[in-house]
Specification:
It comes from Streptomyces zagrosensis. The protein has helices spanning about 10-45, 50-60, 75-85, 90-100, 100-105, 110-130, 140-155, 210-225, 245-250, 255-265, 285-290, 380-390; strands at about 65, 70, 160-165, 175-180, 185-190, 230-235, 275-280, 300-305, 325-330, 360. By secondary structure, the protein is of the alpha/beta class.
């Protein structure tokens, strides 16, 4: 008698395999359904939340005022200026409160409104860090860093300080103004180098080695050099600088991003028709200024670099700017031992104080080491101040008087 298996009917083993296969397929189908309905949304929820500035800009992009859509935050500064000029005082205050981080970083917004908005944003960031100081989910180091940031924000909120830009995300960025930017006829911008962030924006010990101290002493020196000149100085740390002497420090990526941000800041300065601008670029900041040089606003008349690893150019004229190029280096500055070359994107090019580069070389007498150029009583700071106020023929050169050749 012929068995069912011989007629082609499934064997018990075949039935078992088929049942297992169907159970597996059914389980996979359930998993896919769960992913489609809940799992993928859970994955989406695990994505990092937008940083505070991005969130504020996104809200700004959807906002209105007086029945009008708010302009694109990436609009040219002159368009943003026209928009803000059309608003009432109460409308300006409302925007500063509602979109504090966005308004505080809008190039083209009135600087007084930016100061107000950044004070509000700083206070909010201070409260966030105060809570994080006691967050048990953080490591002791994390709570300590939260405390440091909280104290930094408290400092920036003190004494009516004029914060032109503020971003608490990541290591953070900031810019501070000394003097009256709205009416200044001479504006100086200090562009710092590596390891600059919110925590190093100012220092208690050796304060003049940090951006705030550099700008403060430069402002005081300019007031001494020309009391009748209306000046303002910006401590500009509104870019993400390299951390330490690593790959970021020997390549131009961070400088490119910084150059874009520097140009945007300069394009948004008030009183542009009447003011002249000088850039004072230290260490890696000189790389930023070198990359930015070929597309700077015409108001930038002078670029002075100190402790420079190079400006990503072989000659001053290669920078593509009509601004005068000044350079200085202290004889004890370790940057002199860094090879000035550019090989496959590594290195930043020729030494700006070399005779072949073609910069106007200033005296740095009295400066001590790589970070001592802004110390009171030094020839370096005095020379910076004279460049800042336009007293160019009275600077002291770094050997001879070649640096003043051709100046009226």
């Amino acid at each position: 008698m012929t068995s069912f298996s011989e007629l082609g009917s499934p064997s018990p083993l075949s039935w078992a395999c088929t049942a297992t296969t169907w159970r597996t397929l059914l389980a996979l189908a359930v998993v896919f359904v769960l992913l489609a309905t809940t799992g993928w949304s859970a994955v989406r929820q695990l994505r990092a939340a937008p940083d505070p500035l991005s969130a504020s800009l996104a809200a700004w992009g959807k906002g209105t005022i007086g029945g009008r859509q708010l302009p694109d935050a990436d609009s040219p500064p002159h368009r943003l200026t026209r928009f803000f000029d059309s608003l009432t005082g109460s409308q300006l205050a409302h925007l500063a409160r509602r979109y504090s981080l966005a308004v505080g970083n809008l190039n083209g917004a009135p600087v007084s409104v930016r100061y107000q908005a950044n004070r509000l944003a700083l206070n909010e960031a201070r409260l966030v860090e105060r809570e994080r100081m006691h967050d048990s989910r953080l490591t002791p180091y994390g709570r300590h860093e939260a405390e440091r940031r909280m104290h930094r924000f408290e400092s920036l909120l003190s004494g009516g300080r004029q914060i032109l830009a503020f971003n608490p995300s990541g290591s953070g960025r900031a810019a501070e103004v000394f003097g009256q930017l709205e009416t200044a006829k001479r504006v100086s911008v200090v562009v710092p180098g590596v390891d600059t962030d919110l925590l190093t924006f100012e220092r208690t010990r050796q304060p003049n080695r940090a951006p705030v101290g550099m700008a403060r002493t430069l402002y005081a020196a300019e007031r001494t050099a020309s009391p009748q000149t209306k000046t303002a100085v910006i401590a500009w740390a509104d870019y993400t600088s390299p951390a330490g002497i690593g790959m970021d420090a020997v390549t131009g990526g961070r400088a490119g991003d910084g150059a874009d941000r520097l140009r945007a800041t300069l394009s948004g300065l008030p009183n542009r028709a009447d003011a002249k601008v000088a850039l004072f670029c230290h260490s890696y900041g000189s790389v930023v200024c070198g990359v930015a040089a070929d597309d700077l606003p015409r108001e930038v008349t002078d670029i002075a670099v100190s402790g420079s690893p190079g400006m990503r150019a072989e000659h001053a004229f290669d920078l593509g700017t009509s601004a005068r190029i000044w350079a200085m280096r202290d004889r004890g500055d370790w940057i002199a031992d860094v090879p000035h070359l550019d090989v496959g994107g590594l290195g930043h090019g020729a030494d700006p104080v070399s005779s072949d580069f073609g910069a106007r070389v200033l005296s740095a007498d009295g400066a001590i080491g790589h970070a001592g150029y802004f110390e009171p009583g030094t020839a370096s700071l005095a020379n910076f101040a004279k460049v800042g106020v336009g007293a160019l023929t009275s600077v002291s050169c770094g050997g001879g008087d070649a640096c003043t050749a051709g100046l009226a």
